[in-house]
Batch of 3 targets.
Target 1
Amino acid sequence: MSNPPLSPDVSGDAHAQAGGGGPAAAYHRAPAGPAVESAPAPLVAVDRRGRVSLVNAAARVLLPGLVPGVPLDDGVAPGWLVSAVRGGHREQDAGAVGTGEATGTAGTATAAAAHGPLRGRAFTAYSAPLPDGHTAWWLSDVTGREDAERSLRSERESTAFLARASARLQASLNPRRCVVATARLAADHLADAAVVVRLSRDRRPEVTRAVSDGRLEEETPSAAVEEMPGLAEALAGFPPVSFRSVDPGRVPAWLLPSGFGRPASLTVVPLPGSGGIAGAMVLLRRAGSGSAGPGEDADPGEDTGSGEDAVTRIFAARAGAAISAAALYAEQVATVAVLQRELLPPALPHPEGVELAGAYRPAQSAQSVGGDFYDVHPADGPGRDTDIVLGDVAGKGPEAAVLTGKIRNTLTALRLVESDHVRLLDLLNRALLSGPQDRFVTLVLASFGTPDPATGRVALRLTSAGHPPPLLLRLDGTVEAARTSGTLIGVLPEASATTCSTVLLPGETCLLYSDGVTEARGGPYGEMFGEERLAEALASCAGLHARAVVERVGMLTSEWLAGREHDDIALVAVTAAHRTPLSAVGGAARSGEER
C-alpha cells in the first residue's frame, strides 16, 4: 500500500513529529488540516491494521498517552471504542472484497458506531472513511443529553405512577381498601416494603404491611407508636414534620413484615389528610435495592434525590387525602345508619278487629337521612283510640333527623293530654315555633276505636296538615280521597285543619302515604308516579288484607322507579278485619246510609 502523503499543515501528534523515530515514525499519519486539529470534538484516526494515525488536540486531552503509530488497543482507549474500530474494519474489508474497490471516499459519513463511558462521561463514537483505508472516529460527549433523557423518562414514569395511584386510591371509599392500596403502591414503586400505620380509637396502632413480592399483612399489635422513632411525631400531625430517616437498628419487630429481615434503610413519611393527619407510612429498603429512599443520602452518581422525594411527597399527600376522605365517608355512613335505625318505625300492634300494615323505604342515597316517619300508638285505656301519625319533615340530613325525633317525642306526649286532632296539631305547631329550627313538617293523623262488635265497622277520624290526604279503598274497588286539609306545621303562628270522619266496612282499607310515592320518578319518560297511578294501584287491591295492600303498592312503586333514585317512601294501611271469605265479597256499592 502506498504511503498517504502528509499534508503540510497537519499537526498529527507532537511526539511523532518531534521524535523522528520509534513506533510512531514507522507509520503514515492520516491527512488532516488545522480545522481537524483545533476541532472541539475529540478525533482519532486509525489505519486498516488498527494503528493510530491521527490524534487531534481534544483527543489528546481526553486520551493522554494515545499517539500515532501505536495500536489502538494498547490499553489507552476504552474497550468499547476498540471493539467498534475492529468491527468497522471488518465491514470495510468485506465491502472491498465484494466490490473489488477501495474503501469509500473521504467525507462519506456513517451512522453512529459505538457508545460507552469514558472518564466519567458518556460518549458516542461516529466513524467516517478517509483515503487509503484510514478511518476517522469522532467522539461526541452525550452526557448532558443522556441526563436529560433519563430525567424525562423518570418524570414520565413518575407521572404515570401518580396517575395510576390516584385512580386506585379514588376507586373506593372504604378506608381499609384505601390503606391497603397505599401500602401496595408504595411497596411496588417506592421501596421494597411499606407499612401504613393508623391509630385506632383506643390509640393502638393499626398496621398494614405490604412487600414488593405481593405479601400483605394486617395487624393491630399491642404496642406503642413511641417505640418507633419519628412515628409518633408523624401521626401527631402538629407541628408538621417531613420525611425522617431512622436508624434501622431501632425499628421494633412489630413494624417489620414477616421474613423481611433487618432493613438497610428506613424512612417515616406522614400522610396528611383533610384537616388532620390520616396516618403515617414507613418505607423499608433492603441492602442493594438500587436506590436511596426519600430523605436519604443517595450513592454518588445516582439521581435519586429531590425527584424521588417529590414523587413520594405527592403520593403521600394523595394517599392521605384518599384515606381521610374514605374515613370521613365511613363515619358519615355510620352516623346515617344510626339515625336511620332510630327513625325506623316501631313494630305495629294488633288491635282487635283492625289490620295494620306499614312499610318504610329510606331514600336511595346512602348518605341521605330523610324525614319521613310513621308511628302507631295503641289505645292506652277504655274509650281511648289507637292513633296513627305519618309525617314528612322538610329537607334531609341530620337536622331533619333531629327534628323528626323531636316531633315523634312531642306527639307521644301530647296525645296523652289531647285527643282532638286539630288542637293536637296546634299544640305541636307552637312547640316547633318555640325552637330555633327553620324547618316545617307535614302530617296526617288517623284515629280509630274498637270496631262495632255486630257489624265489624271501624269509625275513623282523619286529619291532614299540609300532607296528601289518605285514600279510602271501598269494597267495590272505588278509591276516594279523604276530605281533610290543613296548614303546614311549624310555619304559621296558628295551625288550622279540618277533620274527616268516615267508616270502614270489613275488608275496606284506608291508605296513608308520603309524597315519596306520588313523586317517584320513573317509567319510560321519567315521569312522576302521581296520584292517579297510585289510585289505580290501590283500586287493584280491593278486598286484600292490609299487608297485601302495602306490599302491592310498594311493588308497583318500585317497578315504576326501576332502580332510579327516590325520596323516602312511607306507607300505612288500616283495614277493617274481614268477616266473610274473599270469594263471597260482593261488588255492590255501599250507600252512605249503610255506613
Note: The first strand starts at residue 43 and ends at 46.
Target 2
Amino acid sequence: MISNIVYKNTVVQNLTAIISVLFAPLLFNTLFVYGNVYGLTFLLGAVYTQLLSLNKKGKKRIIYGICTVILAGMAYLVKPNFEIGIVAIAIVYFLAIFREKRYIILVFGTLLVIPTVNVTLEKMYSHEVNKNISLSGGVPKITYLVMGLNETSDGRIGWYSGYNDQSFLNNDYNAHKTEKVAKKDLRKRIDYLKKHKTYTRKIFVKKVISTWTDSTYQSIWNGPLPTWGGKINTDIMRIIYIKDGESKLYKFIRYGSVVIVWTIFLFSIICTLLYLMGKMNIDENYLLYAVIFFIGGFLFHTFWETKAQYMYQYTASLIPVASVGLYKVMDFIWNRIKGLRSK
C-alpha cells in the first residue's frame, strides 16, 4: 500500500511484494513475539497514514494525521527504539510546512507522542504504587549505552552482555543508584576509548560488521532451535533446523538472503541517486522518511546496545524505494535491448 503511493506502477508493487516475501525476517519473524515486530507494524501504519495525510485535503488530512500520531504512539509504546521512526515522521511533516503552514499542527502532534506515552506510563505506574504494589523506575537507559560500548565475554562489541540487568540487580533494583554507577562506568569507558584511538576504530568497525552482516537478521535463530529446547512441528522447519545449521536448505536461505539484502541496499542507492539527479519522480516524503530512518538506526546502534535482529526494520523500510530503483534499471535494460533489436 505504501509502494502504491511511493510510485504508482504495478510492476513496482509486484516487486515490493516479492522482495518482502523473500526478505527473511518478514517471513520468519511472523511468529516471533517481540516488540520489534509489533512496533514495525504500527510504525508502517503510521507512515502509510502520514503519506495519505500529505496527499489529501480537508477533513481526510486531519483524520489521517490523527491516525499517524496514534499509530506512532503505539509503536513507541511497544518498543522505545521506534522513536527514531517518530522523529523521521516529524521531520517529514516539518518540511511539509514550507508547502502549507497547517502541517505545523501535525509536527507538534508527532513530537508530543514520546512525552505523552512516557507520562501515561508514569501515571499507570503511580496508580499501581498507590495500590500498594511496589514498582521500581526500571532499568536506566544509560546502561544500554554502556553495554553498547563494551565487549562481551565472547568478544562481540556492543552486543547484549547482561550488564544492564546485572547492574540493576547489584544495586538492589534501585534505578537511581544503577544510573549513578552506569554514568561512572560510561565515563571510564569513554576516557579509555579516547586514549586508545586505534583500538576504538577497530571495535567500531567490528561492531558494525557483526551487527549488519547477518543477512537473516537472526530471524531463523529466533525460531525453534532444538539446542534451546524448541519444538519443531512441520517437516519444512525440521529440514531448516536439522543438524543445527548444517542443513542445505538453511544454507540456501542464508546465502540467498545475502542477495536479497544487497539488492535492497544497491537499488535503494540507485533510486535515491536518480531522484537527486532529477531523472525520476517518486513520492519524496517516503524517500526522505526511509533514508532518515535507516541512517538514524545505523547511527543509534553504532553506540547503543546492538543485535542483528534490531536492524531488520531499517532495511525493510527501504524495500519500496529499492523496488522503484530495480524497476528503473530493468526498464532501462529492456529499452536498450529493444533498441538494439530494432537496429
Note: The first helix runs from residue 2 to 6.
Target 3
Amino acid sequence: MIQQLAGFAPAPVAARMENHGNHMLKVAMQTGNDLLARVGSMVAYEGFVQYEPNPPAVRQIAKDWMTGEGAPLMKCSGDGLLYLSDYGANVVVINLNGDAISVNATNLLAFDAHLTWGVERVKGLAKFAGQGLWNTKISGQGWVALTSRGKPIVVDCGGGEDETYVDPDALVAWSPNLKVKGKRSFKAQSLIGRGSGEAFQMAFSGQGIVVVQPSEDSTDRLRVRG
C-alpha cells in the first residue's frame, strides 16, 4: 500500500512556493520569512509553524476597508513545510521580481509578508459602479499564490491598440499598469439564462497580462464601495 501511495509524496523543496499537483500550494517556511495566507487555507504542515489571525499589519490596512473588501488573512511563521488550498481550486504561483500585480481578493491565497500591499480603487470604473471597484495590489520582490476556479488563461495584452475584454466575475488578476475602463452592452440574447439583459465588461489596454478563470462565480467578486 505504501508503494502505491508513494507517487503522491511531495517533491524535494526547490523554491519558497511550489505547486503540489494543481490544487495545493507547498510553502517552505523559515524563521524571519513570514507568510500572509487566507484564513482557513491550511490543510497540513510539517515542523513548527504558528498562526496569528488578523495580525497588526493586516488590521492597520483594514482600517480603510469596508465590509467585504480584502481577504481575511493570517500570519504564518516558523520553520517547516506548509500546505495550503482553497476548496480544490487551481493554484497559480507567481514570483514577483520587483514588479506588481493587482489581485481580486477572492483569488488571493498567500504571499510573502514583506511584500508591499494594500487595497486600491480600480481607476476608470467609478461611473459604472458608484464609487468604483477595489482590488488588492501587491508589489516588490517575493512570492504570491493565487487561486482559479479551473485552469486559468493568461492573456498578454501586447501593448497594442486593441482592448482585451473580461467578465468581472471571471477576472483573477492583472498588471496594475494596464489601463482599465468599463463597457456596457445590451443584447436580446443576454436575457436568456443568467443574464439580466445588461452585460458589463472590463476593458484592458497597454503592456501587461490579465489572468482569467473559466468560471463566473459572482458570489464574492470585485467589491463595490459606495
Note: The first helix runs from residue 2 to 5.
